Amino acid sequence: MAQPGPVLEGKGRTDYERYIRTDDLLALQKDDAKLVHPEERLFQITHQAAELWLKQVDYEVNRVAAAMKDGSFAGASDLLHRCRMILDLLRDQIVIVETMAPADYHVIRLSALGKGSGQESPGFNKLLDVRHRLWPPFEEILRAAGATPLEILRAPREHYELHRLAQAMLDYDAAFMKWRYTHLRLALRIIGSRVKSLKGVPVMQLEGGTREPLFGELWDAISDLTDQTRPEY
Fold this sequence. Notes:
The chain is mainly α. It is about 65% helix and about 0% strand. It has a single domain (about 35-230), classed as Methane Monooxygenase Hydroxylase, Chain G, domain 1 (Up-down Bundle). The longest helix has about 30 residues, at about 160-190.
């Protein structure tokens, strides 16, 4: 019996293959015969998958900004939670590369990567701009509510939706810093602390980015609340 609905156009034997474009997607990896080392497949697929997920986070962040401007604070919080889950996935995913022996990575680094560096990741660099996309609409929300980050944290139930949104922003921020830290630990595990990246940046110089929050005002408000509540901490 024929299945209802249109047959999708494109390459592939099934609608699933045509919709996902598996022929195109699976053709993006090097052929087995062209791999400079058997471990190169893992390295390439890990980073290709990361770029797909980073593209999704970038897309969702734009939706978060739009939801904030529309006054849909719960919707913005839910989307930030999704973004946090994707960042957690990216953190778990990149750890798989630690199963690669450093000696094997050096073959790939010297033979296949050219001058390429993770610092050139378009997905990563777009996420460095998240503060500029989300903090201005959040500040506008605070002005409209006549509240400060500290007041929201001090009275979470009186400002329930704003408190939930602030917590979602903190969750995202923490996940982003954790992901960057995990990436740094991977670099230390594979190439060590004294080696420079392919862009000439010492690996340990990347550590600063693991401690730079996107929403510093929210983190400061947590400290301010503690100081006001029990300053002898």
